[in-house]
Structure formats: C-alpha cells, structure tokens
Amino acid sequence: MIILIIVVAVMFVLVALFNSIIKAKNQIDNAFGSIDVMLKKRYDLIPNLVDVVKVYLSHEKEVLDQLTKLRMAYESQKVTSNSKVKTMNEIENTMRKLNFSVENYPDLKANQNLIELQKSWNEAEEQIAASRRFFNTAVTEFNTKIQQFPGNIIALVVGFQSMEVFEINSPIERENTRARDMFDS
Hints:
Shape: rod-shaped
Oligomer: single chain
Strand content: under 5%
Largest sheet: none
Distance between the termini: 79 Å
Number of domains: 1
CATH superfamily: LemA-like domain
Number of helices: 8
Structural class: mainly alpha
CATH topology: de novo design (two linked rop proteins)
C-alpha cells in the first residue's frame, strides 16, 4: 500500500513537472509570436518611409531598392523562422545607410509625414524590445526547467532541447534603431 502511494505521488509530481515544461514551451511560442507581430508592424512602415524619402532621394535608388528587396525577403519567410529577425536587422542597417543621404535634405527632415513615421518607428522599436525581453524570460524559464533534476530526465525522454535566448551579436545591432536618429543631422 505504501509503495502504491509513493508511486502515485511520484507520478503526480512527474506529470505536474511535465505540464509546467509544456507551459514554459508555450510561453516561448507566444513570446516569439509577439516579436513577429512587432516586426511586422515595423515592416509595414517601410513602404511609407520609402515613398516619403523617394521623392527627395531619387539618386539613392540603390538603397531604396535594397529596402524593397529586404521587405520582400521578409514577407517570403516562415512565421516561426529566426531569419525574419535577421532580415529585419539587415533592414535596420540599410536604414542607417539611408540616414547619410537624408541628412543633406532639410526639407525632407521637416516633412510631417516623415515625422509621424519616425514616431511610429520608435514605438515599434520599443515594443520589439519589450517582446524580446519577454521571449528571453520565457526561454530562460524553459531552459531552467529542462536542465534541473528531474526535469532533465523528462526532457531527455520527451526530446526537449535547450533553446537560445535572443542575443544581439554585432555592435551595430546592439544600437537601438531610432528613426529620428536616422533622419536627424
């Protein structure tokens, strides 16, 4: 009878632990979805930025074409793909290149449409940062659960593997991309 109680108690603990690992995994999926939504919001600003800037920078066609190509690449990628984040980082770098050209056009920097787009861009950046923090918290919680005993045994049996937190690897990516900074001299 005592053995049966012990077996039932152990099974109860293992099921509860398994469920908590599943909950942590679902939090990661939810957090990545939030990042993707915010990246999409920022991505949707690109055509408007290109249209506003295009009038003033017709000779910077190469940079504008690169932005358009990157936007199309982003659109073709799978929702769960980390390559979306990479593509958005490439877009940020291209936007920095555009900055150097815009500095020579005071009329463009004073354009009301551009000012509103800058505000929207900055809001999207802040929301992306918050989503990345939520994602990293969820990943850390999940990794902790599957690396500690007895969660590591469950992870081994079920096939759960540690996940990577979102890290910024290059110094350029570490800088917050602010639209106002890109267009102010």
